[in-house]
TrEMBL record:
This is Phosphatidylinositol phosphate synthase. It is a multi-pass membrane protein. Its EC number is 2.7.8.-. The active site is at D90. GO terms for cellular component: plasma membrane. Its cofactor is Mg(2+). HAMAP family: PIP_synthase (MF_02241). The lineage of its organism: Bacteria, Bacillati, Actinomycetota, Actinomycetes, Micrococcales. Catalyzes the conjugation of the 1'-hydroxyl group of D-myo-inositol-3-phosphate (also named L-myo-inositol-1-phosphate) with a lipid tail of cytidine diphosphate diacylglycerol (CDP-DAG), forming phosphatidylinositol phosphate (PIP) and CMP. PIP is a precursor of phosphatidylinositol (PI) which is an essential lipid required for cell wall formation. It comes from Sanguibacter inulinus. One of its GO terms (biological process) is phospholipid biosynthetic process. Contains a di-nuclear catalytic Mg(2+) center. Homodimer.
Amino acid sequence: MLSRLRGLMGRLFHPLAKALLAAKVSPDAVTVFGTLGVLVTALWAFPTDHLVAGAIIIGLFAFLDSLDGTMARLAGRSGSWGAFLDSTLDRLADAAIFCGLAAYFLLHHEGPTRAWGATAAIACLVIGSMVSYARARAEGLGMTANVGIAERAERLVVSLVCAGVVGLGAPVVVLVVALVVLALASLVTVGQRIATVRRQALAAVVPATSEG
Ligand SMILES: CCCCCCCC/C=C\CCCCCCCC(=O)OC[C@H](COP(=O)(O)OP(=O)(O)OC[C@H]1O[C@@H](n2ccc(N)nc2=O)[C@H](O)[C@@H]1O)OC(=O)CCCCCCC/C=C\CCCCCCCC
Ligand SMILES: O=P([O-])([O-])O[C@@H]1[C@@H](O)[C@H](O)[C@@H](O)[C@H](O)[C@@H]1O
Ligand SMILES: [Mg+2]
Ligand SMILES: [Mg+2]
């Protein structure tokens, strides 16, 4: 869904991408910097109950994930190394965000909120990784699986906006429910990707002839 905004993001980041390339900054440096920014912020801000600052700063660093690709395409340097680095470091950033949220529930809440919140955050991490794995495996086999209701942009927007809103004073149940729904939506996305790959794989099977 939000991946439709990819083109718009590219146009938005075009001037900054040009300026950074002119300053001899590489797309890989932006990828690494953005990941480190998310990692450090998520593992500091969420476990220490700074939900608003965490959501805003992580959101800003996460946008660098759009800038790196824009820079690579502008420089005519997008390729398999960059694609590998980008996707692999995205998994590290995602792990930090959802582990940070799990730590927030474990350290600052009691009872059912603590149990449901931490479990839902870890479920988002594990099932979200399955979503990404399904796509990576499909692409490794020469197919595509870039479909689904909870792709990475949706997972980040829902988790960060709800964390921010709770930090601003909304009841914590808002974040718990959002994470439970996100884990379920991620599971649906895994199913959608499996169905897409199955269609492609079966269409590629040459039917056996009746001749012996
Ligand atoms: C109360 C409400 C508050 C409202 C807050 C506002 C919320 C914001 C709402 C919406 C924002 C929506 C933005 C999402 C758009 C996402 C579009 C999208 O899908 O973009 C994709 C990007 C990047 O993905 P990817 O890395 O795959 O693409 P690239 O363009 O990089 O291309 C990859 C190829 O490039 C090559 N390459 C790459 C790197 C490299 N080093 N070398 C290379 O060669 C290679 O070929 C690769 O294959 O995804 C994203 O941008 C991630 C999503 C970011 C979403 C951030 C969400 C922030 C939201 C909220 C945060 C703040 C909340 C604060 C709330 C405060 C309290 C109210
Ligand atoms: O597959 P997914 O997790 O929903 O979404 C993402 C892809 O849209 C993106 O191209 C890739 O760089 C990310 O690492 C991640 O895989
Ligand atoms: Mg990127
Ligand atoms: Mg990425």
